[in-house]
Amino acid sequence: MFSKKAGLLFTVFVTGAAVLVVEVLALRILSPYYGNTIFSASSVMGVILLALSLGYYWGGKLADRHPDFIWFFGIILLGALFIWLLQVFIKLLLPLIGYQMSIMWGPLVNSLIMFFVPSLLLGTLSPYAIKLQQVLHPEVGVGSLSGQAFFWSTCGSIVGSLLTGFVLIPRLGVDKIIIIVGSILVLLSLIPILFSTNKFKLKLIFVLAVLLVGAATYFLLNVFQPSTKVVYSHDGVYDRIVILDGQYNNRPTRFFLQDRNLSSGIFLDSQDDIHDLAFDYSKYYVLYHLLNPLAKDFLVIGGAGYTLPKVFLSNPKASRVDVVEIEPALLDLAYKYFNLSKDDRLNNYVEDGRRFLAKSDSQYDVIFGDAFLSLYSIPAHLTTKEFFELAKQRLSKNGIFMGNFIGDLSMSKNSFILSELRTFQSVFSNTYVFAVKSPDFPNVQNIIVLGINGEQKIDFTDPDIKNSADPIIRSLSEHLVDLDGLALSQYTLLVDNYAPVEYLTAQALK
């Protein structure tokens, strides 16, 4: 027979799982607005740990005053309602204030608003369960009861964490997971409340509250929908993936977004979407025609919409185009939505870019790095001196590395892009840097770095460059950044041991 003690332990297992599901989802909920950064991760973990610690303290006090099953399961119901209310914040609050706050402090403020209360309520349950077990079994020591409660609660947290990452997020959307978790907690809480023989009014209030919040949540999920032309929207393994149609430069355009980061785009009215690229930074691929026109082996780190792999594959001299993309779904999405054609020369690797380079012994004529973690932020391990040294080892003689970075060229004290340029130049002594808008542009822009594995130089006075039919080649001198005038030695050299990439990026975004 299912005893009350077993029921309590089962309950703390389920609620422990719910806490970790909320914690993992929290990063997904915030990432479209603030990116999947250290600020988001630290804010979520800090707020939930604060809530749990206060919940443990308050739960112990409350259990001593009211050691009652109705109170215990009532707290679970209240926690379930606040988990359901996350949908209100996601649908209504975050779109209003999410983009108004910085990527440093926005995650902390919104974590406090959204995740503190449900985590606090669920945190009260472990000490409460210990007290109820003590009432049921006064002959058992408090140490044994505490050990059992926290053992099953922690086991639930482990299961919740793994289940969310390996099963729920890859198969369901955030909204469905929230509804499922809230519904499970509601059912768990209502069973003892509905079958109790006293406090009829209290039970009625609980049931009405559940129905009211459930109806409101259903409305938000099924009636209130933003008026956007979303072609595809789904949670990937690492990011929220959204493909939508809109306008860019007064032309119909299909955009590819990962969280808040606009990664790729193609013109829908283009007769040649391979070379008629939407974003100016991607047009700098033509530099390889200038420096290594016989290139045949290409590597792209960061696939996104696979626009650059399409360009390299269009070169009849290309014998191999390797793409390293850590998000598994993107290749199929590129085939379906971005006109990527099947080609035996295309090799796709679902792997981290640096890990791929470390394991590979291939040599490439061209490596193009275009991997972003979140809003303007590149994974730190793809920005360091050690990474560029590894990339250089994989270049053939006179091979070139091109990288797309984002930042501003102002001589601010904490500058990611200037730190990156110093780091890059420490590995590639033969370096050129181009500002996609202008070297004098005062705000954030795309910065293209070019490193040559050899002594080949670009003569910007060459008539073939000045009179080139390609506008990018023709205007190179106008976009060239004077590295000697930047005093790069005063900026941080990014190494594996110290690479505060997200902090420096946040300073630029202020």
Structural account:
This protein is an alpha/beta fold and 510 residues long. It folds into 2 domains: 4-222, Growth Hormone, Chain: A (Up-down Bundle); 275-509, Vaccinia Virus protein VP39 (Rossmann fold, 3-Layer(aba) Sandwich). It has helices at 4-34, 38-65, 69-84, 86-97, 106-123, 125-136, 142-171, 174-195, 200-222, 287-291, 307-313, 330-337, 353-359, 385-393, 416-427, 463-466, 471-474, 476-479, 501-509, and strands at 230-235, 240-248, 251-258, 261-267, 297-301, 320-324, 346-349, 364-369, 395-407, 431-435, 445-452. The strands form 2 sheets. It has a 7-stranded mixed beta sheet with strand order 7-6-5-8-9-11-10, sandwiched between helices. It has a 4-stranded antiparallel beta sheet with strand order 1-2-3-4. β3 and β4 (261-267) form a beta hairpin. α8 packs antiparallel against α9. The longest helix has 31 residues, at 4-34. Mean pLDDT is 86; it is low at 223-227.
Keywords:
510 residues; alpha/beta; Growth Hormone, Chain: A; Rossmann fold; seven-stranded mixed beta sheet; four-stranded antiparallel beta sheet; 19 helices; 15% strand
